[in-house]
């Protein structure tokens, strides 16, 4: 008999050792997303659990669990024969199972290593593994594992997550009654839920308190005191995560693409992802996206996307992948669409100025013309012989953009997108107006437009700033190097022109009181005179850069946009209104770059007069006068009839003296206004004698 018992014990130990897979003892831990101030945005988990050390759980809380679940925990070796016999006796008396005999160690084994089947073979396995756990680990280690592993109902695992969920407290702040309530949930978390069944929960809590008295943890007076307490729940509010779903998915994607953490690893690894999200701005953008008044009126099905990036760091402050976004859904922040005129600064005007052959007031052709079978039209069907680049950008004229791309070459323009790692497919001049095979995404445009407000340099947009492990140690941090896309001079020139587009051009609709530069864009529908496929606004302030896109996921004869870029432009400004970005009143010119003055707008001189006067020594002078234009920068060229070269040039004044004229043969003179920006002359005005 003794030999048989020894052999049985040996078999149990051998089987228990074999069955223990220590990898299963590594608990799945909840990962979190927090902003840079540490404010929690969401938790990510398959099981909502935050592991904690036993030393951080108050003794009275430990005693509550031991009193109701395993009062002889520190005396047995994985199996409690006394409790087992007592449970068997009570069950036989009641004719049903009313009491369990499993120790805490056995519960750990059952939950970690075994299935829930109710067979004798499973029970034998449970005992074998439990005895071996007791041999390998200390009691404190087993109790710590138990408290971190058990289920508390409502998707909550572990003592820390339960403490935060039910009481909004850390475990070390739990009092006796609160600890007893949590311990009481172990028997049946659903049945004794203080949320669903408060009366049953209170009765169960009081039973735990009574049991604590029996085990010597509480005095009779203390039991009475705590049993008289209400449940005193302080439930953690279930946060509405809908506004943050797009951003959360971007964290998952970046964790995989950049840091090689799979979706499952993120859910189970207990990481803390520190992100660049501005919670208030994200919520504001979401609320505005839900308001149909901010979108074209014809249908509530019109979709949209929004992304806003910190211009200094490249951290994404807000992102919306759609108006009705669902988790792991179609994130329109990343989807390529036809960019319309928003591509002009990147593909055409910026590259042209980088050649140093063009400046903001260079004259571009604006005549309707044929480019080898391609005939672009200005959106307003207005044309002129020439137009400045400044006005072409401000008013989003199409013909000058196509003409200029033809002059510098499509390959030159595409090179800048390639430098930004943005691939486009096109072989025609229609690219100047956004005619691309696949298009570009909102986040692509944000990345490239950043160059204009950041001295010509781009940086990789990203959501994750830092990743911390369960110990709070940084295991990864965002380090993205800036890359030069345009020269500082080109960037400043473009900033000033895009600022003009907002102040007085195609993007002037809506209100924004801070410094803002940006570009509108629409894409037309082939064969259709009205309506648009896509509507855009891409803009930047001295601190942020962002984009809004609107359109249908699939455009057809009955699904297209009316109202064009005015909607995304107005919405962008609404989102940024009353934010920190609005505090900037102006863009700061970088050192060493030339300024871009306001455009000189010339009109014709009304009249000019000439009066001949006598001066000492018998000399005669022709005094020419005129009313100067309001812009003091306008120059005035004085021409003598018959001469192709001016005899003089004056700036900002309305008079000039022609000395030593022949009184017997007075010449005719003309005054011609001259624009030094565009190097253009206005209409000449004859100086009439008086």
UniProtKB/TrEMBL annotation:
User: Keywords for this entry?
Assistant: Carboxypeptidase, Cell membrane, Cell shape, Cell wall biogenesis/degradation, Glycosyltransferase, Hydrolase, Membrane, Multifunctional enzyme, Peptidoglycan synthesis, Protease, Transferase, Transmembrane, Transmembrane helix
Q: Which InterPro entries match?
A: Beta-lactam/transpept-like, Glyco_trans_51, Glycosyltr_51/Transpeptidase, Lysozyme-like_dom_sf, PBP_transglycosylase, PCN-bd_Tpept
Residue ranges occupied by any Penicillin-binding protein transpeptidase domain in the UniProt entry: 304-576
**Catalytic activity of the protein:** Preferential cleavage: (Ac)2-L-Lys-D-Ala-|-D-Ala. Also transpeptidation of peptidyl-alanyl moieties that are N-acyl substituents of D-alanine; [GlcNAc-(1->4)-Mur2Ac(oyl-L-Ala-gamma-D-Glu-L-Lys-D-Ala-D-Ala)](n)-di-trans,octa-cis-undecaprenyl diphosphate + beta-D-GlcNAc-(1->4)-Mur2Ac(oyl-L-Ala-gamma-D-Glu-L-Lys-D-Ala-D-Ala)-di-trans,octa-cis-undecaprenyl diphosphate = [GlcNAc-(1->4)-Mur2Ac(oyl-L-Ala-gamma-D-Glu-L-Lys-D-Ala-D-Ala)](n+1)-di-trans,octa-cis-undecaprenyl diphosphate + di-trans,octa-cis-undecaprenyl diphosphate + H(+)
One Pfam family, please name it. Transgly
Q: Where would I find the Glycosyl transferase family domain in this sequence?
A: 38-213
Gene3D superfamilies in alphabetical order: Biosynthetic peptidoglycan transglycosylase-like, DD-peptidase/beta-lactamase superfamily
Return the SUPFAM superfamilies for the record: beta-lactamase/transpeptidase-like, Lysozyme-like
NCBIfam families hit by this protein = PBP_1a_fam
Could you tell me what this protein is called?
PBP1A family penicillin-binding protein
